[in-house]
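Entry details:
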Amino acid sequence: MADYFQVSTATPTREQAVALARTVVSRRLAAGAQIIGPVISAFWHDGEFGTGEEWQLLLKTTAARYPELEAHLLQRHPWENPEVAAVPIEAGSEACLEWITANTTPTE
């Protein structure tokens, strides 16, 4: 298993994306968040094709923090069944990976 992940999700509004990013980073569930948007998504939902505008979040975390991050996102997300997908970070600069570790370590 990879030690680090980039996790993505999306929200319907910029404000919701910023609020989620703020909570996960302040709780050290992710070292940082990038908010990209608006983006246009095409998807199947409830058997129907649709498109919509979304704001994408990219979050950097460790494998150890991922389960709590996922639970937090699912609990606080505005959608009932949001995308939460983690992609392993197979390689990265040593300084970047150290930054992720340092900033996802819970403080006492």
About this structure: Strands lie at 4-11, 32-45, 48-62, 85-88. The chain has a mean pLDDT of 95.
